[in-house]
Design a protein that fits this description.
Blueprint lengths: L2 H20 L6 H10 L15 H11 L16 E11 L2 H14 L3 E9 L5 E11 L3 H9 L3 E11 L1 H27 L3 H33 E10 L15 H49 L7
Helix pairs in contact: 1-2, 1-7, 2-3, 2-6, 6-7
Length: 306
């Protein structure tokens, strides 16, 4: 068999393996591509040991071409957490509270990613909603500082451990990149148009999968490096702070309830009186002349019959 024939046969074997790997989906596409690419170097898919885990399969595919195996130990395994917080505040001067929130953001090397501020008829700031991004390492300190900016209404935080997800995406990105490099080697060695078209189709698909994985990787890196805190500031209603704490019983409570009942009764009576008064005035204007006429008719002596 001539070298050219041997190369064409190896390319066809590799393409067949790549075609079968495509049916496994994007989740395990990286390891399948590496195994199929190794067949171009003279190996066979049947020669691969039965891998009990993704790391074992990756190690086998990397050892085939002398590369350093990609395993969980070869990537960053630090704990990765996505933290989010919500802080609701109330202040008499919303503008001043907004400025203090900015001071907290600057103190912890954060940034205001989004802001929605509204004013009243006089142009004064009446409400403000801010979405803050602060380093994850200083998330707890930032939340504690924000709760002291004004009167705290509510505060909550959530944390999600995504270490496994980050590790999985990182490994798949590395495997996919090596798979693309091997397919590019096959493309450089291909001579027939049929082989070139088939290899380019596989290469395009692998590059699209890699782009998708890299977007996931960038998103996770951003979410784990910077935490999100949503701060809402509302204006304190007039007289809200002066209101005493509500008591279920007591003299003052009874007095307040009685006074409220008296006021309510007086308002109801005045309302009824106001509604009836116009009708009473009309009845008086029409009734007085009629009553006088009736009395005059009654006093007139009766005419004797002849």
């Amino acid at each position: 068999m001539t070298p050219r024939t041997r190369l064409a046969a190896a390319s066809l074997v590799a393409l067949a393996a790549l075609g079968s790997a495509c049916s496994t989906g994007a989740s395990d596409g990286g390891s399948s591509a590496d195994t199929s690419a190794d067949t171009s170097a003279g190996g066979s898919v049947a020669d691969a040991p039965a891998a009990e885990s993704r790391q074992d399969a990756l190690a086998f595919s990397d050892e085939a071409d002398g590369a350093v195996p990609i395993t969980a130990a070869s990537v960053d395994t630090d704990r990765k957490v996505i933290s989010t917080g919500n802080v609701a505040l109330r202040a008499e001067d919303v503008g001043e509270a907004r400025a203090e929130v900015q001071e907290v953001v600057d103190r912890y090397d954060g940034e205001v990613a989004e802001e929605n501020t509204g004013t009243d008829d006089d142009g004064d700031v009446a409400r403000s909603r801010l979405v803050l991004r602060v380093p994850t390492a200083r998330f707890d300190e930032a939340v504690e500082s924000l709760t002291g900016v004004a009167d705290l209404v509510d505060a909550s935080t959530t944390s999600e451990d995504v270490t496994t997800k980050v590790l999985d995406v990182d490994i798949r990105v590395r495997v996919q990149r090596r798979s693309i490099r091997r397919i590019e080697l096959l493309l450089d060695r291909a001579e027939s148009i049929r082989d070139i078209v088939a290899i380019e189709a596989q290469l395009s698909r692998r590059q699209a999968d890699l782009a998708s994985l890299e977007k996931q990787q960038d998103h996770l890196a951003d979410q784990t490096a910077q935490s999100t805190i949503t701060v809402s500031i509302a204006r304190t209603r007039e007289g809200q702070e002066a209101e005493p704490e509500a008591d279920d019983a007591g003299f003052l409570t009874g007095l307040a309830s009685g006074w409220d009942g008296l006021v309510t009764t007086a308002v109801a009576a005045a309302t009824v009186l106001g509604a009836v008064l116009p009708f009473a005035a009309v009845a008086l204007l029409l009734g007085l002349p009629a009553w006088a006429l009736l009395r005059r008719l009654r006093r007139r002596p009766a005419v004797p019959a002849e």
